[in-house]
Amino acid sequence: MRDFFQNHVLHNLGLKLTSLVLAVGLWLAVARDPVSEVAVDVAIEFHNIPENLEISSENIPRAQIRLRGPGRIAHRLQPSDVNAAIELSDVKPGERTFDLTAQQIQHPKDLEVVQVVPSQFHLTFDARSTRQVEIHPRVVGSFAAGYSIGRIIVDPPTIAISGPKQRVEAVEAAVTDPLDVSGTMDRATFIRHAYVSDPLIQVGNPNPVRVTVIMEKAPTLNSGH
């Protein structure tokens, strides 16, 4: 009996006690770390969109991802730890509905995706188009008495815009920030940016334009004799 006790119980006793302590510690850690659920709001990433296409939908959806797992991990979760990606390599111009499932979500391996909202979303695509449009100065203010605008010189007179084809074709002109000519009796030169109000249209050259407003005196009417 003594030999059995020494050979099987006391042999490597320190290692056995260490293993026991680690096992008990792990059990206590798990028991004290209940399963938690957390939601993160992330942008949907679009991969490999063809170069000749543009997304022509103004509202790009975001996704709310609900994940479940050990509380110590769930409570430290950051939105940057979760990624929702959609592959667009095969899209064509027109409307398209996409599924967004747990298989398309990248996340920490110890957490499980339990819900994705929305589970589907809808986008419209159009061919990319570029063209030149005129720049229309936006002149404001009160003219000096007896004066009116004689001529406006815009340098450069046009600007390149690009974006979804239908929206590019609908743009009549770019406009400048306001030019206040109040009290001007000769000429005034302004440096202003030109812009297009459609948020899906990109201005090709964002540099400001030079606008010169030349005033002229209105002719006076001579009274008859």
Give an overview in words:
The longest helix has 19 residues, at 13-31. The chain has helices at residues 2-9, 13-31, 71-74, 165-170, and strands at residues 35-47, 53-55, 62-70, 83-87, 94-99, 105-106, 112-117, 120-140, 147-155, 158-164, 174-180, 187-192, 194-195, 202-203, 209-217. It is an alpha+beta fold and 225 residues long. The chain folds into two domains: 35-118, Beta Complex (RNA Polymerase Alpha Subunit, Chain A, domain 2), CATH 2.170.120.30; 128-217, YbbR-like domain (RNA Polymerase Alpha Subunit, Chain A, domain 2, Beta Complex). The termini are far apart.
Uncertain segments: none
Order of helical and strand elements: HHEEEHEEEEEEEHEEEEE
Overall mean confidence score, pLDDT: 87
The CATH topology of the largest domain, please? Answer: RNA Polymerase Alpha Subunit, Chain A, domain 2
Q: Approximately how much beta-strand content do the residues carry?
A: over 45%
Number of domains: 2
CATH class of the largest domain: Mainly Beta
For the report, how would you describe the main beta sheet?
7 strands, mixed
Helix content: 10-25%
Descriptors:
seven-stranded mixed beta sheet; 225 residues; single chain; RNA Polymerase Alpha Subunit, Chain A, domain 2; 2 domains; elongated; 15 strands; alpha+beta
Summarize the structure.
This protein is α+β, with helices and mostly antiparallel strands and 225 residues long.
Topology:
Layout: H1 2-9, H2 13-31, E1 35-47, E2 53-55, E3 62-70, H3 71-74, E4 83-87, E5 94-99, E6 105-106, E7 112-117, E8 120-140, E9 147-155, E10 158-164, H4 165-170, E11 174-180, E12 187-192, E13 194-195, E14 202-203, E15 209-217
